[in-house]
Write a structure and sequence with these properties.
The protein is α/β, with parallel strands linked by helices. It has 20 helices and 18 strands. Strand 3, helix 3 and strand 4 form a beta-alpha-beta unit.
Amino acid sequence: MKDEGVTRMFGNPGTTELPIMHALTEQRDIGYVLGLQEAVVIAMADGFARASGQLVSCNVHVAPGLGNAIGSIYTAQMSGTPMIVTAGQQEQGHGLTEPLLYAPLVPIAQPVVKWATEVNRIEDLPRILRRAAKVALTPPTGPVFISLPGDILNNEAALDLGAPTRVDTRTRPSDAALEACARRMLAARRPLIMAGTEIVTSDALAEAARLAEILGAPVYQQSVQTGAHFLSAHPAFLGALSRDQAQVRRVLEPYDLLISVGAELLQMSVYSEVEPLPPHTRVIQIGQRDWEMGKNFPAEIALRADVKETLAALNPLLERLGGQARATAAKATLAELADRNWSAQRAKKAEAARARGGSQPIDPDWLMLRLSDGLPDDAIIVDEGLTSARSLIAFWPFRDRYSYFGNVSGGIGWGIAAAVGVQMAQKQRRVAAVIGDGSMMYCVQALWSAAHYKLPVIFVIANNGGYRILKQRLKAFHGNDTPIGMDFRDPPIDVAGLARAYGVTAHRVETAAQFDAALKAALADASGPILLDVVVQGGT
């Protein structure tokens, strides 16, 4: 694993993993990061890999441990995180007796990984590890799983360790395909760009911005805000699409061409009879994930290629074919967006949020504004604030590809643990994690890891004492305004006290003035994690 570029193993050990733990004590090249529950382990590793671009290793314990980890592995699969997950297994033959903790591991893992296998001979172990690294790192990237029986781990043999293989997928389309794509884009009357996750993974923010400038096309971020998919302050950026099908259809109605650049094409959440894509809007898709192309909506042109390489070749071709007339028209179109682009919207929303600054409990929009204004420009936000953080990306500007990380799968509990991994990967930058109080409880054990490794994460817990998103949907979908099973106020959870029990400095925040002071103090202290338990509106 060291030879494959792994620098961290995230884990929660058990008896079957003791040979690995024994080996780790004899070397210092791969650091071991302890998580107190397997879902925490995987989510921390997910954050580390997404914020570093590195292959990461996770080690969990037999069937129950793998079961605990599955939800987080599902999230890693959705985010395309390159990750090798291993689990200790009972010795071969011993499993036939169905001992305590036993179950076949490969079938459990298969639905949520790119490849899953079990090692049956020690001689195969190097080949399997090499293959796992190659598969995890080859786009579309993702997690892989290896089951390690105890007799294999305890065996010794002289092995040929092999060497790494990397598949170079930084390809661009053929000249003919590029020209056809360029001419189709230039022929569009009103093109629109949808920016997505592959802009982040291919490091193509500058190229995507140039595409918008050449075409004079407005840009929306994909409907699931998983990362910093476009530069917020760019004059073409209009913000993120919602997951309301009817609202998205109204947004897209004026446009005759939707250019999806590395994006999940109109991924929605709850069912609607309304299709989000208007029938007259044609689609071009560019990216590595061919499964996404034409999956739900037909693509007139689909280019399976690296986003950065494709735009690097496409942009100058568009400039040449479009000429000065297109350049002039594009500049005028972008100028027309000045009163409704992200920057203009931010100014209006900020004014409204400031007017609610004296509210108690604290207004969530004011909280998101003050957090965004108070953090340094190079800070990183990890977002699982759900309803309380609905306005966060309207205030926090994406300045680089690592400035924001959102939850890919919707499975809650990811954010509080992922923030630990992100801070480990980006040591020189300050990480702020915006987490709902309900989400916090799913992986609260991550606070111990943050304290143990003295990571200066600022955890901002939006505390409304319940599952507000469920209350909203119960009322919207069923007309029911008397929820049950959605509050945790009797007894109330002492969020700050819970954090202190894990070794984290924590403060209860109930007023706007307290928040401003607490955030300023937290930014001045980089000795370890700090949690702000912020009481916000929306609990009823």
